[in-house]
UniProtKB/TrEMBL annotation:
Name listed for the protein in its UniProt record: ABC transporter substrate-binding protein
SUPFAM superfamilies according to UniProt: Helical backbone' metal receptor
Pfam families: Peripla_BP_2
All copies of domain Fe/B12 periplasmic-binding, residue ranges: 33-310
Organism: Campylobacter blaseri
Length: 322
């Protein structure tokens, strides 16, 4: 009996950690107060419904910008009124002093190097849990797997695993439905994709995740290329049947349309009314919700019978609760 009691006591005294994206075993018991730093970190916190536990956010996240749908939740939950823990943005570290002042139980970080994470831990004496949007080979389908793994790990360490399981299951159901759709295999191109800012029609993705989910490819750029800027004359040389344009680059593309009318009038897709606008794919990392909406939009443009507004409402409700 004494041995059993001792064994139970030993089990209770042993705390299991959660492995983060840097393959580190992070041990934090029941973290209540959280901050999210780095490109895309807060988005995952919103996806898991952790808004009420957030004690500070980056100034970058306080901007009213509909290119990132989770910004609606930031406004609705008044997270923009929380203390600022740094400017945010590509390559920018948070304010160590502000982090110490916020005093979270756990910092969740994305898009940072091991040295940067170590610096934050050393300066603040606070634990950092790393999540990721990118796989080692950076192929879109593997990136999606990495995002799911990070959502699950974040769910485990924040005691919101049930929500993570629910969301991942939903994504996998969406993938299965999308892959089963009968679509016309036409030549396609995606332009205007955001990459550390907004660009024109020559800004594209060789391995565009909504295309990959549907089993189609960018007709101008090989899948081995992640993001590339191409000479727009190449678009005319291939002259794809269907052109998709990211809303994130709308201003730039519309300016190009005004200044290069002969070029655009020579494109088959423009003459055939086969040009479609898609929701912003990248904005402070990947908009996972928009990724699936865009996949449905592409499928509809290629002949699938899709209630696009219904799907859009459903996906935002599943990811954001709105």
């Amino acid at each position: 009996m004494v041995r059993v009691a001792l064994f139970v006591l030993m089990l209770h005294s042993f705390v299991f950690g959660v492995v983060d994206a840097f393959n580190r075993d992070i041990v934090v018991e029941n973290p209540q107060n959280l901050v999210f730093v780095g490109s895309g970190a807060l988005r995952f916190g919103v996806y898991l419904g952790l808004e009420d536990r957030i004690v500070g956010i980056e100034n970058r996240e306080k901007r009213d910008d509909m290119h990132a749908p989770y910004n609606i939740v930031i406004k609705n939950k008044k997270l923009d009124k929380k203390p600022t823990i740094g400017e945010g943005g590509s390559g920018k570290l948070p304010s160590m002093e502000a982090l110490i002042e916020a005093n979270p139980d756990l910092i969740i970080a994305s898009a940072m190097s091991k040295d940067q994470v170590k610096l934050i831990e050393t300066k603040t004496k606070l634990p950092v849990f790393v999540i990721s949007y990118s796989s080692s080979d950076d192929l879109s389908e593997n990136n999606l797997k990495t995002m799911k793994q990070s959502l699950m790990a974040l769910g485990e360490i924040t005691n919101s695993k049930d929500r993570a399981v629910e969301l991942i299951k939903y994504m996998e159901e969406q993938e299965k439905e999308l892959r089963s759709l009968p679509i016309n295999k036409k030549s396609v191109y995606i332009g205007g994709v955001n990459y550390k800012g907004s660009w024109g029609i020559g800004s594209t993705e060789g391995d565009y995740l909504p295309f990959s989910i549907l089993g189609i490819e960018n007709s101008l750029v090989d899948r081995s290329n992640k993001h590339v800027f191409i000479d727009i004359e190449r678009i005319l040389s291939v002259n794809p049947d269907v052109i998709f344009i990211d809303e994130g680059g709308r201003k730039n593309v519309e300016l190009e349309m005004e200044n290069k009318k002969d070029f655009f009038n020579s494109l088959k897709a423009f003459n055939d009314n086969k040009v479609f606008w898609l929701l912003p794919f990248n904005f402070y990392n990947t908009n996972l919700d928009n990724t699936f909406i865009n996949a449905w939009s592409v499928a509809k443009a290629l002949g699938a019978n899709v209630d696009l507004e219904g799907k859009k409402d459903e996906i935002y409700r599943q990811f954001l609760g709105i």
